[in-house]
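Hi there,

I know you've been waiting on this one. I reran it after we fixed the sequence typo, so this is the corrected version. Both the input and the resulting structure follow.
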Amino acid sequence: MTANEGGGGAGFAARTLSRLDWSYRFEFLRVVGRAYRTEARLRGIVLGRNTAFFGRPILMIHPGSSVAIGDDCVLVSNSRRCSTANLYGPVRLQTDNDTSTIAIGRGSGLNGVSIWCRSTSVVLGEQVAIGPNVTIMDSPAHALWPPENRSHYPGVELDRPVTIGDQVWVGNGALILPGATVGENSVIASRSVVTGEIPPNCLAAGIPAKVVRYLA
């Protein structure tokens, strides 16, 4: 019989710490998340029913822009609540213009994802699963050429909307770039970079992401 299995002090302490850790992960974070929901509303975000915040997200919402999060969504900004990996940072939602739109569909889950919508739109369908440390952006942030202009890009002519279809799964650390479209039910492999159109019902991987095989 090990110390953990017996009634010894070490085993009791280990079990108690384990219970406290699980309680923190699910109960304390959920309760504190209610305050973060209030903050989101105060910043102008439209929240659906039963949307849960685990950890405090970074919300940089431009006045006049549109940000909506559907029913039953989960936003995870704390590594203790993320079941698959450490998070490099919390969920980050940022809009920069009156024309910016972020829409997250019903039942979607975001783990430490960064969504930056500079001037167009970033739309996630229903039941989209976004793995840890994914970045989604509608703007390159800098002009490609000439090089002397890269440090200052005041325009929006290079911005392109991003659309992710229903029931898409985006793996850890993927990068979704301006103009990307991912069809419904598709899977984006970890560390992939999506630059164009990914059709529905497929597995895509690589830099840039290409179809590996169809799933249906």
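Quick highlight: The chain has one domain: 9-214.

Best,
R. S.
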